[in-house]
TrEMBL record:
Protein name: Molybdopterin molybdenumtransferase
Family per similarity comment: Belongs to the MoeA family.
Keywords annotated in UniProt: Magnesium, Metal-binding, Molybdenum, Molybdenum cofactor biosynthesis, Transferase
Catalysed reaction, written as an equation: adenylyl-molybdopterin + molybdate = Mo-molybdopterin + AMP + H(+)
Cofactor(s) needed by this chain: Mg(2+)
Domain of life from the UniProt record: Bacteria
This enzyme's EC code(s): 2.10.1.1
Length: 419
């Protein structure tokens, strides 16, 4: 009897029959619906608040500017005194400088020396640039007309006291710190850092720097995930490598649940003999999403371990990174008190050709050169060099797509994910 080979695996053309595949958008909707902040609140001074997540809406304590002031170095006057054509105006004694205001009111028909940022003296509503006048020290000569309010800034024209300046959930930027300072807010309620436990699984893994057996590989996922968490503004808790042993892994997960708000594991997420993570998580009965219609990264085990959410990332480093960026990053953002994070996408012409099959969303390692998206030469999920070569991802939609050079595709720079 001759053995017949198994029927052609249509893995590359269609999705395996009888398997429930979860679309990326459905998974994201489910995550954004179910997750909420889990971190406490602390009050920090501005110097410690960069990259932290606001825990409340912030209200301006003071207007910016607090009083009307001059936008230029020049001369202040009353607009009603200005006529059309050439004219001269006597100067009053004194001046108004930033931090040294002129205390009196400007008499009718006069002008006053005023410097940038100086409070406008009473009755002054218009300022002429010093380049536009001549003076002998006693009076100034210039041409009218001038626009009422020229070179003057109104009180509160930037921000009015009492206005909401920043929303809860916002990640504070350097510019936000300037806004807070200017409006009289010196300390802010922020979320405590989200503690993210990181565990790699697999007997094949060795620690970078240690000697490795020929059959071992160095653990690449942990340094990557640690660094990604740092860039996202979370606090990584590195728990090391768990062996392929169910009880040992259980111990790692128990420790992780103790010490963290969320657990990121990599490896062991699919259904092989040594994929203990999936088996353990199934045991808890709290696993709620499973096979994703995404490439790379099909096996993604999501669940709760003693109430602490686990993202069981696939072991292949490319899949681990893509799943972190697409699923874990926005989900962890919600846990950390951030607003839902949807990265900014660019529409750019492709510098490549590809025939994409329907059924799952694909992410390709990509970078922009000369305004076009180039993709890495291989789609292999273990090709770490491509992750490092890339500067972002090309996102291809769930359906089929014929791409030729010049077809518009979606590019998401790593920076848009917060990397
Ligand atoms: N019969 C099937 N086999 C596989 C399927 C499948 O659907 N049917 N899916 C493949 C896909 S896709 C992926 S991704 C992997 C995911 O498997 P696991 O999450 O269980 O991960 P492992 O098997 O433990 O590892 C996969 C791969 O990645 C390497 N790895 C793991 N951890 C690290 C690390 N920290 N640093 C560097 N490299 C790591 C590991 O050695 C393996 O080569 O399953 C496929 N198989
Ligand atoms: O998730 Mo796997 O890495 O798609 O190849």
């Amino acid at each position: 009897m001759t053995l017949t080979p198994p029927p052609l695996k249509d893995d590359c053309f269609a999705l395996p029959a009888g398997t429930q595949w979860t679309a990326v958008d459905d998974a994201l909707t489910s995550l954004s619906d179910r997750l909420h902040p889990v971190t406490g609140i602390e009050v920090l001074p501005l110097e410690a608040a960069l990259n932290r997540v606001l825990a409340e809406d912030i209200i301006a304590q003071r207007s910016n500017p607090p009083l009307p002031n001059s936008a230029v170095d020049g001369y202040g006057m009353r607009h009603v005194d200005i006529i059309d054509g050439p004219q001269a105006m006597p100067l009053v004694a004194g001046r108004s400088a930033a931090g040294q205001p002129f205390e009196g009111a400007l008499p009718p028909g006069h002008a006053i020396r005023i410097l940038t940022g100086a409070t406008l003296p009473k009755k002054v509503d218009t300022v002429i640039l010093q380049e536009d006048i001549t003076t002998d020290g006693q009076q100034i000569a210039f041409h009218g007309p001038l626009k009422k309010g020229a070179n003057a800034r109104n009180a509160g024209e930037d921000v009015a006291a009492g206005a909401q300046i920043l929303p809860s959930g916002r990640i504070l930027t350097p510019a936000d710190l300037a806004l807070l300072a200017a409006t009289g807010v010196a300390q802010v309620p922020v979320r405590k850092l989200l503690r993210v436990a990181i565990v790699s699984t697999g007997d094949e893994l060795a620690e970078p720097g240690d000697p490795a057996r020929p059959d071992q590989i160095y653990d690449a996922n942990r340094p990557m995930l640690r660094a990604m968490c740092q860039r996202f503004g979370f606090h990584p808790v590195d728990l090391g490598r768990a062996p392929d042993d169910r009880e040992a892994l259980r111990g790692f997960l128990d420790a992780a649940a103790e010490q963290s708000d969320v657990i990121l594991t990599s490896g062991g997420a699919s259904a092989g003999d040594e994929d203990h993570l999936a088996a353990l998580m199934n045991e808890t009965g709290a696993m709620f999403l499973w096979r994703m219609a995404i490439k790379p990264g099909r096996p993604l085990a999501l669940g709760l371990w003693h109430g602490t959410p686990i993202f069981g990332l696939p072991g292949n480093p490319v899949a681990a990174m893509v799943c972190t960026l697409i699923f874990a990053r926005p989900a962890m953002g919600l846990l950390a008190g951030q607003n839902w994070h949807d990265p900014q996408r660019l529409s750019v012409p492709a510098a490549f050709a590809k025939s994409k099959k329907p059924g799952r969303r694909e992410y390709l390692r990509a970078r922009l050169r000369n305004g076009k998206a180039e993709v890495f030469s291989s789609e292999g999920s273990g090709r770490i060099s491509g992750l490092s070569w890339a500067e972002g991802l090309v996102e291809l939609p769930d359906g089929a797509l014929e791409i030729s050079e010049g077809t518009l595709v979606t590019f998401i720079p790593y920076s848009a994910f917060g990397l």
